[in-house]
Design a protein that fits this description.
By secondary structure, the chain is α/β, with parallel strands linked by helices. It contains 23 helices and 20 strands. A six-stranded mixed beta sheet has the order 2-3-1-4-5-6, sandwiched between helices. It has a six-stranded mixed beta sheet with strand order 16-17-15-18-19-20. α9 crosses α10 and α14 packs across α15. The longest helix has 17 residues. It starts with 8 loop residues before the first strand and ends in a 9-residue tail after the last strand. The relative contact order is 0.07.
Protein backbone atom coordinates (compact mmCIF):
# COMPACT_ATOMS: atom_id res chain seq x y z
CA UNK A 1 0.00 0.00 0.00
CA UNK A 2 1.19 3.48 -0.81
CA UNK A 3 1.66 6.12 1.85
CA UNK A 4 -1.39 8.01 0.64
CA UNK A 5 -3.45 4.81 0.98
CA UNK A 6 -2.54 4.24 4.65
CA UNK A 7 -5.40 5.39 6.88
CA UNK A 8 -3.70 4.73 10.23
CA UNK A 9 -0.46 3.29 11.58
CA UNK A 10 -0.89 0.86 14.48
CA UNK A 11 2.24 0.47 16.64
CA UNK A 12 2.46 -2.34 19.19
CA UNK A 13 5.04 -2.26 22.00
CA UNK A 14 6.08 -5.58 23.55
CA UNK A 15 8.87 -6.61 25.90
CA UNK A 16 9.76 -8.25 29.17
CA UNK A 17 8.48 -6.97 32.49
CA UNK A 18 10.24 -3.85 33.80
CA UNK A 19 11.90 -3.07 30.45
CA UNK A 20 10.24 0.36 30.44
CA UNK A 21 7.93 0.17 27.41
CA UNK A 22 4.99 1.70 29.29
CA UNK A 23 7.24 4.50 30.55
CA UNK A 24 8.30 5.21 26.96
CA UNK A 25 4.66 5.63 25.88
CA UNK A 26 3.81 7.89 28.80
CA UNK A 27 7.00 9.91 28.31
CA UNK A 28 6.06 10.49 24.67
CA UNK A 29 2.58 11.71 25.58
CA UNK A 30 3.48 13.73 28.68
CA UNK A 31 6.88 14.90 27.42
CA UNK A 32 8.35 14.01 30.82
CA UNK A 33 9.25 10.89 32.74
CA UNK A 34 6.15 9.63 34.62
CA UNK A 35 6.33 9.42 38.40
CA UNK A 36 3.67 6.71 38.46
CA UNK A 37 3.75 3.91 35.87
CA UNK A 38 0.73 1.55 35.58
CA UNK A 39 1.13 -2.07 34.41
CA UNK A 40 -0.16 -1.07 30.97
CA UNK A 41 -0.89 2.18 29.17
CA UNK A 42 -4.26 2.61 27.51
CA UNK A 43 -4.32 2.71 23.72
CA UNK A 44 -3.28 6.17 22.55
CA UNK A 45 -4.18 7.90 19.27
CA UNK A 46 -1.93 10.62 17.93
CA UNK A 47 -3.72 12.84 15.36
CA UNK A 48 -2.33 12.89 11.86
CA UNK A 49 -1.76 16.65 11.81
CA UNK A 50 0.97 16.35 14.46
CA UNK A 51 2.86 13.48 12.80
CA UNK A 52 5.53 13.97 10.10
CA UNK A 53 3.62 11.85 7.55
CA UNK A 54 0.18 13.30 8.42
CA UNK A 55 -1.18 9.83 9.24
CA UNK A 56 -2.99 9.10 12.54
CA UNK A 57 -0.98 6.77 14.76
CA UNK A 58 -2.36 4.31 17.31
CA UNK A 59 0.06 3.18 20.05
CA UNK A 60 -0.80 -0.07 21.83
CA UNK A 61 0.90 -1.37 24.99
CA UNK A 62 0.95 -5.09 25.83
CA UNK A 63 1.29 -6.25 29.43
CA UNK A 64 1.77 -9.91 30.34
CA UNK A 65 0.61 -8.98 33.85
CA UNK A 66 -2.90 -8.05 32.63
CA UNK A 67 -3.22 -9.85 29.29
CA UNK A 68 -2.76 -13.44 28.08
CA UNK A 69 -1.11 -15.03 25.06
CA UNK A 70 -4.31 -14.98 23.00
CA UNK A 71 -4.51 -11.21 23.34
CA UNK A 72 -0.84 -10.96 22.40
CA UNK A 73 -1.39 -13.02 19.25
CA UNK A 74 -4.38 -10.88 18.33
CA UNK A 75 -2.51 -7.61 18.87
CA UNK A 76 0.44 -8.80 16.78
CA UNK A 77 -1.91 -9.69 13.92
CA UNK A 78 -3.56 -6.24 14.06
CA UNK A 79 -0.35 -4.24 14.36
CA UNK A 80 1.35 -2.64 11.36
CA UNK A 81 4.71 -2.46 13.13
CA UNK A 82 6.01 -3.94 16.39
CA UNK A 83 8.53 -2.33 18.73
CA UNK A 84 10.41 -4.84 20.90
CA UNK A 85 11.65 -2.98 23.97
CA UNK A 86 14.46 -4.40 26.13
CA UNK A 87 16.58 -3.19 29.04
CA UNK A 88 20.12 -2.26 27.98
CA UNK A 89 21.37 -2.75 31.52
CA UNK A 90 20.19 -6.38 31.83
CA UNK A 91 22.86 -8.75 30.55
CA UNK A 92 20.57 -11.44 29.07
CA UNK A 93 17.81 -9.06 27.85
CA UNK A 94 19.04 -9.23 24.28
CA UNK A 95 18.94 -13.03 24.41
CA UNK A 96 15.21 -12.78 25.13
CA UNK A 97 14.80 -10.59 22.03
CA UNK A 98 16.39 -13.17 19.72
CA UNK A 99 15.29 -16.29 21.60
CA UNK A 100 11.68 -15.41 22.36
CA UNK A 101 10.22 -12.18 20.96
CA UNK A 102 11.42 -12.24 17.36
CA UNK A 103 10.50 -15.94 16.82
CA UNK A 104 7.10 -15.31 18.43
CA UNK A 105 6.43 -12.33 16.15
CA UNK A 106 7.42 -14.36 13.08
CA UNK A 107 5.13 -17.20 14.09
CA UNK A 108 2.21 -14.92 14.90
CA UNK A 109 2.57 -12.83 11.72
CA UNK A 110 2.27 -15.85 9.40
CA UNK A 111 3.06 -15.12 5.76
CA UNK A 112 2.51 -11.38 6.22
CA UNK A 113 5.89 -10.32 7.61
CA UNK A 114 5.62 -7.32 9.93
CA UNK A 115 8.36 -4.72 10.33
CA UNK A 116 10.06 -4.71 13.71
CA UNK A 117 11.91 -1.94 15.55
CA UNK A 118 14.32 -2.91 18.35
CA UNK A 119 14.39 -0.36 21.19
CA UNK A 120 17.10 -0.64 23.85
CA UNK A 121 15.78 1.40 26.79
CA UNK A 122 17.55 2.97 29.80
CA UNK A 123 20.47 4.35 27.82
CA UNK A 124 20.90 6.92 30.61
CA UNK A 125 22.38 4.12 32.74
CA UNK A 126 25.78 2.39 32.27
CA UNK A 127 25.82 -0.50 29.75
CA UNK A 128 28.17 -2.22 27.28
CA UNK A 129 27.59 -0.01 24.23
CA UNK A 130 30.22 -1.66 21.98
CA UNK A 131 29.05 -5.18 22.71
CA UNK A 132 25.44 -4.16 22.19
CA UNK A 133 26.17 -2.61 18.78
CA UNK A 134 27.87 -5.80 17.58
CA UNK A 135 24.94 -7.97 18.64
CA UNK A 136 22.44 -5.53 17.14
CA UNK A 137 24.19 -5.67 13.78
CA UNK A 138 24.09 -9.48 13.84
CA UNK A 139 20.33 -9.37 14.43
CA UNK A 140 19.81 -6.87 11.60
CA UNK A 141 21.59 -9.27 9.27
CA UNK A 142 19.73 -12.36 10.51
CA UNK A 143 16.20 -10.94 10.75
CA UNK A 144 15.22 -9.08 7.58
CA UNK A 145 11.98 -7.87 9.17
CA UNK A 146 13.97 -5.82 11.71
CA UNK A 147 14.04 -2.35 10.14
CA UNK A 148 16.40 -0.72 12.61
CA UNK A 149 17.54 -0.60 16.20
CA UNK A 150 17.60 2.46 18.46
CA UNK A 151 18.88 3.24 21.95
CA UNK A 152 16.59 5.42 24.05
CA UNK A 153 15.81 6.59 27.55
CA UNK A 154 12.30 7.22 28.86
CA UNK A 155 13.80 9.04 31.86
CA UNK A 156 15.85 11.55 29.83
CA UNK A 157 13.40 11.52 26.85
CA UNK A 158 16.35 10.54 24.66
CA UNK A 159 15.22 9.23 21.23
CA UNK A 160 11.67 8.64 22.50
CA UNK A 161 9.94 10.56 19.70
CA UNK A 162 12.51 9.16 17.25
CA UNK A 163 11.47 5.62 18.18
CA UNK A 164 7.89 6.24 17.11
CA UNK A 165 9.02 8.14 14.02
CA UNK A 166 11.07 5.11 12.94
CA UNK A 167 8.11 2.85 13.69
CA UNK A 168 5.80 4.95 11.55
CA UNK A 169 8.41 5.12 8.80
CA UNK A 170 8.79 1.34 8.85
CA UNK A 171 5.15 1.12 7.74
CA UNK A 172 5.09 4.00 5.28
CA UNK A 173 8.65 3.63 3.96
CA UNK A 174 9.75 0.05 4.64
CA UNK A 175 13.28 -1.13 3.97
CA UNK A 176 12.49 -4.76 3.18
CA UNK A 177 11.05 -4.27 -0.35
CA UNK A 178 14.00 -2.06 -1.34
CA UNK A 179 17.18 -3.38 0.19
CA UNK A 180 18.70 -6.67 1.30
CA UNK A 181 20.72 -6.09 4.45
CA UNK A 182 22.33 -9.53 4.28
CA UNK A 183 23.53 -9.00 0.70
CA UNK A 184 24.15 -5.27 1.01
CA UNK A 185 22.38 -4.46 -2.25
CA UNK A 186 19.13 -3.23 -3.73
CA UNK A 187 16.58 -5.96 -4.28
CA UNK A 188 15.76 -7.07 -7.87
CA UNK A 189 12.22 -5.65 -7.79
CA UNK A 190 13.54 -2.31 -6.60
CA UNK A 191 16.18 -2.26 -9.34
CA UNK A 192 13.54 -3.05 -11.98
CA UNK A 193 11.32 -0.23 -10.75
CA UNK A 194 14.18 2.28 -10.66
CA UNK A 195 15.34 1.21 -14.13
CA UNK A 196 11.85 1.98 -15.47
CA UNK A 197 11.87 5.39 -13.78
CA UNK A 198 15.32 6.13 -15.20
CA UNK A 199 14.19 5.27 -18.73
CA UNK A 200 11.06 7.42 -18.40
CA UNK A 201 13.14 10.41 -17.30
CA UNK A 202 15.81 9.83 -19.97
CA UNK A 203 13.86 11.84 -22.54
CA UNK A 204 16.50 11.68 -25.29
CA UNK A 205 17.14 7.97 -24.60
CA UNK A 206 20.93 8.35 -24.53
CA UNK A 207 21.38 6.37 -21.31
CA UNK A 208 22.32 9.49 -19.32
CA UNK A 209 20.31 11.93 -17.22
CA UNK A 210 21.65 15.34 -18.16
CA UNK A 211 21.23 18.37 -15.91
CA UNK A 212 17.92 19.33 -17.50
CA UNK A 213 16.55 15.79 -17.15
CA UNK A 214 17.74 15.61 -13.53
CA UNK A 215 16.05 18.92 -12.77
CA UNK A 216 12.82 17.77 -14.42
CA UNK A 217 13.00 14.59 -12.34
CA UNK A 218 13.57 16.62 -9.17
CA UNK A 219 10.58 18.86 -9.88
CA UNK A 220 8.28 15.90 -10.66
CA UNK A 221 9.18 14.11 -7.44
CA UNK A 222 9.90 16.91 -4.98
CA UNK A 223 8.28 20.00 -6.52
CA UNK A 224 11.53 21.96 -6.51
CA UNK A 225 14.57 22.16 -8.81
CA UNK A 226 18.12 21.42 -7.72
CA UNK A 227 20.43 24.38 -7.43
CA UNK A 228 23.47 24.14 -9.75
CA UNK A 229 25.91 23.58 -6.88
CA UNK A 230 23.68 20.95 -5.27
CA UNK A 231 23.41 19.16 -8.60
CA UNK A 232 27.17 19.15 -9.00
CA UNK A 233 27.63 17.90 -5.42
CA UNK A 234 25.34 14.95 -6.18
CA UNK A 235 27.37 14.02 -9.25
CA UNK A 236 30.62 14.38 -7.32
CA UNK A 237 29.41 11.98 -4.61
CA UNK A 238 28.26 9.45 -7.20
CA UNK A 239 31.47 9.65 -9.22
CA UNK A 240 33.62 9.28 -6.11
CA UNK A 241 31.84 6.06 -5.11
CA UNK A 242 30.89 4.70 -8.52
CA UNK A 243 33.27 5.64 -11.36
CA UNK A 244 30.76 4.51 -14.00
CA UNK A 245 27.97 6.47 -12.34
CA UNK A 246 28.75 9.68 -14.20
CA UNK A 247 29.42 9.95 -17.93
CA UNK A 248 29.62 13.08 -20.10
CA UNK A 249 28.66 15.09 -17.03
CA UNK A 250 25.41 13.18 -16.70
CA UNK A 251 24.09 10.51 -14.34
CA UNK A 252 24.09 6.94 -15.70
CA UNK A 253 21.76 4.16 -14.61
CA UNK A 254 24.52 2.82 -12.33
CA UNK A 255 24.80 6.26 -10.75
CA UNK A 256 21.02 6.56 -10.35
CA UNK A 257 20.85 3.17 -8.61
CA UNK A 258 23.77 4.03 -6.35
CA UNK A 259 22.17 7.31 -5.34
CA UNK A 260 19.01 5.55 -4.20
CA UNK A 261 21.04 2.91 -2.38
CA UNK A 262 22.86 5.72 -0.60
CA UNK A 263 19.58 7.26 0.52
CA UNK A 264 18.57 3.92 2.07
CA UNK A 265 21.92 3.38 3.78
CA UNK A 266 21.66 6.84 5.31
CA UNK A 267 18.17 6.10 6.63
CA UNK A 268 16.43 8.29 4.08
CA UNK A 269 14.10 5.61 2.76
CA UNK A 270 11.36 8.18 2.33
CA UNK A 271 13.32 9.80 -0.50
CA UNK A 272 13.41 6.64 -2.59
CA UNK A 273 9.80 5.84 -1.67
CA UNK A 274 8.66 9.29 -2.75
CA UNK A 275 10.26 8.69 -6.14
CA UNK A 276 8.71 5.24 -6.45
CA UNK A 277 5.24 6.43 -5.49
CA UNK A 278 5.42 9.39 -7.84
CA UNK A 279 5.82 6.86 -10.62
CA UNK A 280 2.94 4.68 -9.44
CA UNK A 281 4.45 2.03 -7.16
CA UNK A 282 2.93 0.61 -3.97
CA UNK A 283 4.77 -1.09 -1.09
CA UNK A 284 4.87 -4.32 -3.06
CA UNK A 285 6.69 -2.49 -5.88
CA UNK A 286 3.89 -3.11 -8.34
CA UNK A 287 1.94 -0.32 -9.99
CA UNK A 288 -1.13 0.78 -8.06
CA UNK A 289 -4.54 0.05 -9.51
CA UNK A 290 -5.56 3.71 -9.72
CA UNK A 291 -2.29 4.48 -11.51
CA UNK A 292 -3.04 1.91 -14.21
CA UNK A 293 -6.78 2.55 -14.42
CA UNK A 294 -7.87 6.20 -14.57
CA UNK A 295 -11.25 7.35 -13.22
CA UNK A 296 -12.90 7.24 -16.62
CA UNK A 297 -16.42 5.89 -17.25
CA UNK A 298 -17.76 6.62 -20.76
CA UNK A 299 -21.42 6.14 -21.57
CA UNK A 300 -22.44 2.83 -23.10
CA UNK A 301 -23.27 4.23 -26.53
CA UNK A 302 -20.19 6.49 -26.77
CA UNK A 303 -16.71 5.64 -28.01
CA UNK A 304 -13.27 6.42 -26.65
CA UNK A 305 -10.42 8.08 -28.54
CA UNK A 306 -6.93 9.27 -27.70
CA UNK A 307 -6.57 12.93 -26.81
CA UNK A 308 -4.20 15.25 -28.66
CA UNK A 309 -1.89 15.09 -25.63
CA UNK A 310 -1.79 11.29 -25.83
CA UNK A 311 -1.10 11.33 -29.57
CA UNK A 312 1.78 13.76 -29.00
CA UNK A 313 3.11 11.64 -26.13
CA UNK A 314 3.06 8.52 -28.31
CA UNK A 315 4.70 10.42 -31.17
CA UNK A 316 7.50 11.58 -28.87
CA UNK A 317 7.82 8.06 -27.46
CA UNK A 318 8.22 6.60 -30.93
CA UNK A 319 10.85 9.17 -31.92
CA UNK A 320 12.74 8.62 -28.67
CA UNK A 321 13.23 4.92 -29.44
CA UNK A 322 13.71 5.34 -33.18
CA UNK A 323 17.43 5.79 -32.61
CA UNK A 324 18.43 5.62 -36.28
CA UNK A 325 15.68 8.11 -37.24
CA UNK A 326 14.43 5.93 -40.11
CA UNK A 327 10.79 6.45 -39.01
CA UNK A 328 10.39 2.76 -38.19
CA UNK A 329 11.01 0.67 -35.08
CA UNK A 330 13.32 -2.27 -35.67
CA UNK A 331 12.97 -5.38 -33.55
CA UNK A 332 15.77 -4.16 -31.27
CA UNK A 333 14.19 -0.72 -30.92
CA UNK A 334 10.80 -2.28 -30.17
CA UNK A 335 12.34 -4.51 -27.50
CA UNK A 336 14.01 -1.47 -25.95
CA UNK A 337 10.72 0.45 -25.86
CA UNK A 338 8.73 -2.37 -24.31
CA UNK A 339 11.42 -3.09 -21.72
CA UNK A 340 9.51 -0.72 -19.42
CA UNK A 341 6.47 -3.02 -19.52
CA UNK A 342 6.09 -6.18 -17.41
CA UNK A 343 5.76 -8.22 -20.57
CA UNK A 344 6.22 -7.83 -24.33
CA UNK A 345 2.72 -6.66 -25.29
CA UNK A 346 3.15 -6.26 -29.04
CA UNK A 347 0.69 -8.34 -31.05
CA UNK A 348 2.27 -11.01 -33.26
CA UNK A 349 -0.15 -10.00 -36.03
CA UNK A 350 0.82 -6.33 -35.86
CA UNK A 351 2.07 -6.45 -39.45
CA UNK A 352 -1.42 -7.52 -40.57
CA UNK A 353 -3.12 -4.76 -38.60
CA UNK A 354 -1.22 -1.53 -39.24
CA UNK A 355 1.23 -0.09 -41.70
CA UNK A 356 4.78 -1.51 -41.56
CA UNK A 357 7.92 -1.43 -43.68
CA UNK A 358 8.88 -4.27 -46.01
CA UNK A 359 10.94 -5.69 -43.12
CA UNK A 360 7.84 -5.77 -40.94
CA UNK A 361 8.93 -2.84 -38.78
CA UNK A 362 6.20 -0.58 -37.50
CA UNK A 363 6.20 2.97 -38.87
CA UNK A 364 5.18 6.04 -36.90
CA UNK A 365 1.83 6.03 -38.69
CA UNK A 366 1.38 2.34 -37.84
CA UNK A 367 2.42 2.87 -34.22
CA UNK A 368 -0.13 5.63 -33.70
CA UNK A 369 -2.81 3.69 -35.57
CA UNK A 370 -2.23 0.62 -33.39
CA UNK A 371 -2.89 2.56 -30.19
CA UNK A 372 -5.85 4.35 -31.72
CA UNK A 373 -7.28 0.92 -32.53
CA UNK A 374 -6.59 -0.49 -29.08
CA UNK A 375 -8.21 2.56 -27.50
CA UNK A 376 -11.30 2.07 -29.64
CA UNK A 377 -11.54 -1.62 -28.75
CA UNK A 378 -10.43 -1.52 -25.11
CA UNK A 379 -9.26 1.82 -23.73
CA UNK A 380 -8.08 0.23 -20.46
CA UNK A 381 -5.41 -1.67 -22.44
CA UNK A 382 -4.05 1.58 -23.83
CA UNK A 383 -4.28 3.28 -20.45
CA UNK A 384 -2.12 0.58 -18.88
CA UNK A 385 0.49 0.93 -21.62
CA UNK A 386 0.61 4.70 -21.21
CA UNK A 387 0.93 4.27 -17.44
CA UNK A 388 3.92 1.97 -17.84
CA UNK A 389 5.48 4.47 -20.24
CA UNK A 390 5.21 7.19 -17.59
CA UNK A 391 2.38 9.28 -19.04
CA UNK A 392 0.97 10.06 -15.58
CA UNK A 393 4.34 11.27 -14.31
CA UNK A 394 5.10 13.43 -17.34
CA UNK A 395 1.72 14.87 -18.34
CA UNK A 396 0.15 17.27 -15.83
CA UNK A 397 -3.41 16.09 -16.45
CA UNK A 398 -2.66 12.52 -15.39
CA UNK A 399 -3.73 9.38 -17.19
CA UNK A 400 -7.36 10.49 -17.56
CA UNK A 401 -6.21 13.33 -19.85
CA UNK A 402 -5.03 10.72 -22.39
CA UNK A 403 -8.59 9.62 -23.15
CA UNK A 404 -11.61 11.45 -24.47
CA UNK A 405 -15.20 10.32 -24.72
CA UNK A 406 -16.92 10.83 -28.06
CA UNK A 407 -20.70 10.78 -28.11
CA UNK A 408 -22.64 9.35 -31.08
CA UNK A 409 -22.67 11.68 -34.11
CA UNK A 410 -20.21 14.02 -32.42
CA UNK A 411 -18.48 16.14 -35.08
CA UNK A 412 -15.16 15.76 -33.23
CA UNK A 413 -15.15 12.01 -33.93
CA UNK A 414 -12.00 10.90 -35.76
CA UNK A 415 -12.12 7.09 -35.46
CA UNK A 416 -14.70 5.17 -37.50
CA UNK A 417 -15.34 1.45 -37.45
CA UNK A 418 -16.51 -0.38 -40.52
CA UNK A 419 -17.66 -4.01 -40.56
CA UNK A 420 -16.65 -5.89 -43.69
CA UNK A 421 -19.27 -8.54 -44.45
CA UNK A 422 -20.13 -10.85 -47.34
CA UNK A 423 -20.29 -14.44 -48.55
CA UNK A 424 -17.39 -16.85 -48.58
CA UNK A 425 -14.80 -16.22 -51.24
CA UNK A 426 -15.81 -12.66 -52.02
CA UNK A 427 -12.50 -11.26 -50.72
CA UNK A 428 -13.21 -9.87 -47.26
CA UNK A 429 -9.76 -10.64 -45.82
CA UNK A 430 -7.93 -9.31 -48.84
CA UNK A 431 -10.03 -6.16 -48.91
CA UNK A 432 -9.14 -5.45 -45.27
CA UNK A 433 -5.45 -6.19 -45.62
CA UNK A 434 -5.11 -4.17 -48.83
CA UNK A 435 -5.77 -1.09 -46.70
CA UNK A 436 -2.32 -1.34 -45.12
CA UNK A 437 -0.22 -3.70 -47.29
CA UNK A 438 1.63 -2.62 -50.39
CA UNK A 439 2.32 -5.76 -52.44
CA UNK A 440 -0.15 -8.25 -53.89
CA UNK A 441 1.97 -11.13 -52.61
CA UNK A 442 1.73 -9.91 -49.02
CA UNK A 443 -2.05 -9.88 -49.30
CA UNK A 444 -2.08 -13.64 -49.73
CA UNK A 445 0.07 -14.39 -46.64
CA UNK A 446 -1.46 -15.49 -43.34
CA UNK A 447 -4.69 -17.30 -42.58
CA UNK A 448 -5.95 -15.49 -39.45
CA UNK A 449 -9.72 -15.28 -38.97
CA UNK A 450 -11.62 -12.02 -38.97
CA UNK A 451 -8.72 -9.65 -39.54
CA UNK A 452 -8.88 -6.07 -38.35
CA UNK A 453 -6.90 -3.27 -39.97
CA UNK A 454 -6.62 0.46 -39.39
CA UNK A 455 -5.15 3.39 -41.28
CA UNK A 456 -5.32 7.17 -41.28
CA UNK A 457 -7.08 8.52 -44.39
CA UNK A 458 -7.98 11.99 -45.68
CA UNK A 459 -11.68 12.81 -45.37
CA UNK A 460 -12.89 16.22 -46.37
CA UNK A 461 -10.64 18.84 -44.84
CA UNK A 462 -9.30 16.55 -42.13
CA UNK A 463 -7.95 13.06 -41.53
CA UNK A 464 -9.68 10.18 -39.82
CA UNK A 465 -8.76 6.68 -38.72
CA UNK A 466 -10.70 4.01 -40.58
CA UNK A 467 -10.97 0.58 -38.96
CA UNK A 468 -11.90 -2.33 -41.23
CA UNK A 469 -13.10 -5.32 -39.23
CA UNK A 470 -13.82 -8.52 -41.12
CA UNK A 471 -16.85 -10.52 -40.03
CA UNK A 472 -16.87 -14.19 -41.04
CA UNK A 473 -20.44 -14.73 -39.85
CA UNK A 474 -22.63 -16.34 -42.51
CA UNK A 475 -26.39 -16.25 -41.75
CA UNK A 476 -27.11 -19.00 -44.24
CA UNK A 477 -24.66 -21.27 -42.42
CA UNK A 478 -26.23 -20.21 -39.13
CA UNK A 479 -29.63 -21.26 -40.47
CA UNK A 480 -28.53 -24.69 -41.65
CA UNK A 481 -26.39 -25.39 -38.55
CA UNK A 482 -28.89 -24.07 -36.02
CA UNK A 483 -26.70 -21.16 -34.88
CA UNK A 484 -28.22 -18.29 -32.91
CA UNK A 485 -25.90 -15.34 -33.59
CA UNK A 486 -27.75 -12.21 -34.66
CA UNK A 487 -26.85 -9.41 -37.06
CA UNK A 488 -27.56 -6.74 -34.45
CA UNK A 489 -25.01 -8.24 -32.08
CA UNK A 490 -22.34 -8.14 -34.76
CA UNK A 491 -22.89 -4.47 -35.52
CA UNK A 492 -22.72 -3.07 -32.01
CA UNK A 493 -21.29 0.44 -32.04
CA UNK A 494 -20.40 0.14 -35.70
CA UNK A 495 -20.23 3.33 -37.79
CA UNK A 496 -20.82 1.79 -41.20
CA UNK A 497 -21.14 -1.59 -42.92
CA UNK A 498 -19.43 -2.60 -46.15
CA UNK A 499 -21.13 -5.50 -48.00
CA UNK A 500 -18.91 -7.24 -50.53
CA UNK A 501 -19.78 -9.53 -53.43
CA UNK A 502 -17.75 -11.22 -56.17
CA UNK A 503 -18.96 -10.15 -59.62
CA UNK A 504 -17.49 -13.33 -61.13
CA UNK A 505 -19.55 -15.62 -58.87
CA UNK A 506 -23.27 -16.00 -59.74
CA UNK A 507 -24.63 -16.29 -56.17
CA UNK A 508 -22.36 -13.74 -54.50
CA UNK A 509 -24.61 -10.68 -54.83
CA UNK A 510 -27.60 -12.65 -53.62
CA UNK A 511 -25.75 -13.27 -50.35
CA UNK A 512 -24.88 -9.60 -49.97
CA UNK A 513 -28.43 -8.52 -50.79
CA UNK A 514 -29.90 -10.96 -48.29
CA UNK A 515 -27.53 -9.56 -45.69
CA UNK A 516 -28.66 -6.02 -46.55
CA UNK A 517 -32.26 -7.09 -46.03
CA UNK A 518 -31.35 -8.73 -42.71
CA UNK A 519 -29.71 -5.55 -41.45
CA UNK A 520 -32.63 -3.40 -42.58
CA UNK A 521 -35.19 -5.65 -40.92
CA UNK A 522 -33.47 -6.23 -37.56
CA UNK A 523 -31.73 -3.01 -36.58
CA UNK A 524 -33.27 0.07 -35.04
CA UNK A 525 -31.00 3.04 -35.79
CA UNK A 526 -29.64 4.47 -39.03
CA UNK A 527 -26.21 3.27 -40.13
CA UNK A 528 -24.52 3.71 -43.53
CA UNK A 529 -24.42 0.49 -45.52
CA UNK A 530 -22.08 0.23 -48.51
CA UNK A 531 -21.89 -2.39 -51.26
CA UNK A 532 -18.57 -3.16 -52.95
CA UNK A 533 -18.10 -5.62 -55.83
CA UNK A 534 -14.75 -7.37 -56.14
CA UNK A 535 -12.56 -8.98 -58.79
CA UNK A 536 -13.53 -6.62 -61.59
CA UNK A 537 -10.53 -7.91 -63.56
CA UNK A 538 -12.40 -11.23 -64.04
CA UNK A 539 -15.30 -11.86 -66.37
CA UNK A 540 -18.55 -10.45 -65.06
CA UNK A 541 -21.36 -13.02 -64.79
CA UNK A 542 -25.11 -12.65 -64.42
CA UNK A 543 -26.12 -12.77 -60.78
CA UNK A 544 -28.82 -15.12 -59.47
CA UNK A 545 -32.13 -13.38 -58.76
CA UNK A 546 -34.80 -11.27 -60.42
CA UNK A 547 -32.59 -8.17 -60.37
CA UNK A 548 -28.97 -7.52 -61.19
CA UNK A 549 -26.88 -5.36 -58.81
CA UNK A 550 -27.44 -2.21 -60.89
CA UNK A 551 -31.20 -2.75 -61.00
CA UNK A 552 -31.28 -3.48 -57.27
CA UNK A 553 -29.52 -0.21 -56.55
CA UNK A 554 -31.95 1.74 -58.68
CA UNK A 555 -34.87 0.00 -57.00
CA UNK A 556 -33.72 1.11 -53.53
CA UNK A 557 -32.64 4.58 -54.68
CA UNK A 558 -28.87 4.06 -54.65
CA UNK A 559 -26.10 4.91 -57.11
CA UNK A 560 -24.94 2.03 -59.32
CA UNK A 561 -22.12 -0.19 -57.99
CA UNK A 562 -18.48 0.78 -58.56
CA UNK A 563 -16.01 -2.02 -59.34
CA UNK A 564 -12.59 -2.63 -57.78
CA UNK A 565 -9.78 -5.06 -58.43
CA UNK A 566 -6.70 -6.09 -56.47
CA UNK A 567 -4.66 -5.57 -59.63
CA UNK A 568 -5.84 -1.95 -59.76
CA UNK A 569 -4.62 -0.22 -56.56
CA UNK A 570 -6.21 3.05 -57.57
CA UNK A 571 -9.66 1.45 -57.43
CA UNK A 572 -9.00 0.24 -53.90
CA UNK A 573 -7.74 3.66 -52.81
CA UNK A 574 -10.85 5.30 -54.24
CA UNK A 575 -13.05 2.82 -52.37
CA UNK A 576 -11.32 3.43 -49.03
CA UNK A 577 -11.59 7.18 -49.57
CA UNK A 578 -15.30 6.79 -50.27
CA UNK A 579 -15.72 4.78 -47.05
CA UNK A 580 -14.03 7.59 -45.15
CA UNK A 581 -16.29 10.19 -46.75
CA UNK A 582 -19.44 8.24 -45.95
CA UNK A 583 -18.22 7.77 -42.37
CA UNK A 584 -17.96 11.50 -41.66
CA UNK A 585 -20.94 12.56 -43.79
CA UNK A 586 -23.57 9.79 -43.46
CA UNK A 587 -26.49 12.21 -43.83
CA UNK A 588 -25.53 12.98 -47.42
CA UNK A 589 -26.05 9.32 -48.32
CA UNK A 590 -29.60 8.84 -47.08
CA UNK A 591 -31.76 7.65 -49.99
CA UNK A 592 -35.18 9.08 -50.69
CA UNK A 593 -36.83 5.81 -49.63
CA UNK A 594 -35.84 2.53 -48.05
CA UNK A 595 -37.37 -0.29 -50.00
CA UNK A 596 -36.22 -3.88 -50.33
CA UNK A 597 -37.39 -5.98 -53.30
CA UNK A 598 -39.51 -8.97 -52.40
CA UNK A 599 -37.22 -11.34 -54.29
CA UNK A 600 -34.59 -10.68 -51.63
CA UNK A 601 -36.85 -11.72 -48.78
CA UNK A 602 -36.47 -15.46 -49.18
CA UNK A 603 -38.66 -17.44 -46.81
CA UNK A 604 -36.93 -20.08 -44.71
CA UNK A 605 -33.39 -19.12 -45.73
CA UNK A 606 -32.47 -17.15 -42.60
CA UNK A 607 -30.15 -14.23 -42.38
CA UNK A 608 -27.21 -14.24 -44.73
CA UNK A 609 -24.27 -12.12 -43.57
CA UNK A 610 -21.04 -12.15 -45.53
CA UNK A 611 -18.35 -9.74 -46.78
CA UNK A 612 -16.38 -9.04 -50.00
CA UNK A 613 -14.81 -6.55 -52.38
CA UNK A 614 -16.39 -4.60 -55.22
CA UNK A 615 -18.75 -1.91 -56.40
CA UNK A 616 -19.54 0.87 -54.02
CA UNK A 617 -23.11 1.80 -53.18
CA UNK A 618 -24.49 2.95 -49.89
CA UNK A 619 -27.67 3.27 -47.92
CA UNK A 620 -28.54 4.20 -44.38
CA UNK A 621 -30.06 1.27 -42.56
CA UNK A 622 -30.77 0.76 -38.91
CA UNK A 623 -28.20 -0.46 -36.38
CA UNK A 624 -27.93 -0.58 -32.62
CA UNK A 625 -24.95 1.15 -30.99
CA UNK A 626 -23.38 -0.34 -27.90
CA UNK A 627 -19.92 -1.79 -27.22
CA UNK A 628 -17.71 -2.73 -30.20
CA UNK A 629 -15.84 -5.96 -29.59
CA UNK A 630 -13.59 -8.18 -31.56
CA UNK A 631 -15.67 -11.09 -32.78
Amino acid sequence: MAAQDVKIVRILLVGDSQCGKTSIILALVGEEFPLFVPPRAEEITIPGDVTPEKVPTHIVDFSAQEQDDDVLQDEISKAHVICVVYDLTVEDAFDRVTGYWLPLIRQSSGTASKPVILAGNKSDLPYDADGHNVRLQDVLNAYLEVETGIECSAKDLQNVSELFYFAQKAVLHPTAPLYSISEGSLKPACITALERIFKICDIDNDGILCDQELNDFQIRCFDAPLQPQALQDVKNIVQHNTPLGVYNDGLTLDGFLFLNKLFILRGRHETTWKVLRRFGYNNGLTLRGEYLHPPFSPQRDSTVELSEEAIQFLTNLFKRYDKDSDEALSSIEQEDLFSMCPEYIWDDLIGCTVETTDEGWVTLEGFLAYWVLQTSLDYSYTAQFLAWMGYSAIEKGGLASALKEVLPRDKSKTVFRCKIMGGRGCGKTTFCRALILKSKESLLQGDEDEVICIKSLPAGNSRIYLILHECSYDPQEQYYTGGNRSVSGLLENCDLVCLLYDQSERTSFQSAAQLFNAIDSTLSELIPCIFVSTKSDLAKVEQVGEQQPEEFCIDVGLPPPLSVSYSQPESLSATYSRLATVAIEPSRNIPSSIRVPQWIKLAGVGLLVTAGLGSLIFLLVRASRSSFKRS
